[in-house]
Specification:
Elements (H helix, E strand, L loop, with lengths): L2 H29 L2 E2 L12 E2 L2 H19 L6 H24 L3 H17 L10 H22 L5 H19 L3 H21 L8 H18 L7 H11 L1 H16 L12 H7 L4 H26 L1
């Protein structure tokens, strides 16, 4: 895949996503799709539109398809749809959750079904060599990252910047391995997340909403699994996958362990994330995000370094 095309995909997605998110703010205000402050967990000083993530999802999907045809790789459309359509389903699930508050068990069930569609459409995990067990691990992986990104969406710019760093890292590794579809998706997702950050950096003018968090999490989970580093043994592939999404995994593990130790349900909303801990120790919201993203960037750079070492 030509790097020039990928850079155009990155920049084009960022610009279109930025404009689309700006438009989504007006629509969210008109339709009343707003996140209201509660002076407890949601401490913003006014209602914030939360249709930004849906705009990101639509821009990413359209941008990916356009990029595929523009690069003359129409044969990539069928495998792309096997990822994009379930990811769109995740965004729609999140949109319904934003509006109606879906029961957590139903939410997890739908996430598992959407992940199953991706599996049977051709995205496979070869971890144990036992197909049924690998299938279960894949489903759990997708659910973990989807909900991990949703949990991480707790401070202005945090989830969007995480998606940008992780997707760009996955795209670069896919480019090095000659994976055309995954490199296009990685750069397109990074660009879409970057465009969203224009309106989401502190003080945020728009939120991802569950629609955006579910979509970004779903796409990152699939991209990381699809990345296939050249000459890397299985254990290195696993390490690379974990490094690419290290921040949401660490934050989710920290929060879930803390809540379970207190006898609280893991999905209970609260201000007990790593970002909140940094903020309670005196860091500003942007400062906490930058510190956490420093960890994310180092982890992604380590993943890229492993790939370069095997070339």
């Amino acid at each position: 895949m030509n790097i020039t095309i990928l850079l155009v995909v990155l920049g084009g997605s960022a610009i279109v996503a930025g404009l689309s998110v700006y438009l989504s703010i007006a629509l969210a205000n008109k339709w009343g799709v707003l996140d209201h402050p509660d002076m407890d967990r949601k401490v913003q000083d006014r209602p914030i539109p939360k249709l930004g993530g849906l705009a990101v999802a639509l821009v990413f999907i359209i941008g990916t398809v356009v990029a595929i045809f523009a690069s003359g790789k129409s044969e990539l459309v069928p495998p792309a749809l096997g990822i994009l359509l379930p990811a769109l389903g995740a965004a729609l699930l999140g949109f319904i959750d934003d509006r109606r508050h879906v029961n957590p068990n139903i939410r997890l069930l739908v996430q598992a079904l959407l992940a199953s569609i991706v599996w049977f459409a051709g995205t496979r995990l070869d971890f144990t060599g036992i197909a049924a067990l690998d299938f279960v691990i894949f489903i759990l992986w997708v659910m973990a990252i989807v909900n991990g990104i949703n949990l991480l969406d707790n401070s202005d710019g945090l989830a969007g910047s995480t998606a940008f760093v992780s997707a760009l890292g996955a795209g670069m590794i896919a480019l090095a391995g000659g994976q055309e579809l995954i490199s296009i998706m990685g750069f397109a997702l990074a660009g879409s997340a970057l465009g969203f950050l224009w309106q989401n950096w502190h003080p945020a003018r728009v939120y991802l909403g569950d629609a955006g968090a579910y979509f970004l999490g779903f796409m990152l989970a699939v991209l990381v699994i699809r990345v296939n580093p050249v000459n890397a043994p299985v254990w290195q592939g696993i390490v690379i996958a974990l490094l690419l999404v290290l921040l949401p995994l660490v934050d989710t593990t920290y929060v879930v362990a803390k809540r379970l130790s207190k006898g609280t349900h893991p999905f209970t909303a609260g201000r007990d994330h790593l970002s909140h801990k940094l903020q309670s120790n005196g860091a500003s919201v942007p400062g906490s995000v930058v510190r956490l993203q420093t960890v994310s960037v180092v982890a992604v750079m380590a993943a890229i370094a492993i790939v370069v070492a095997t070339l």
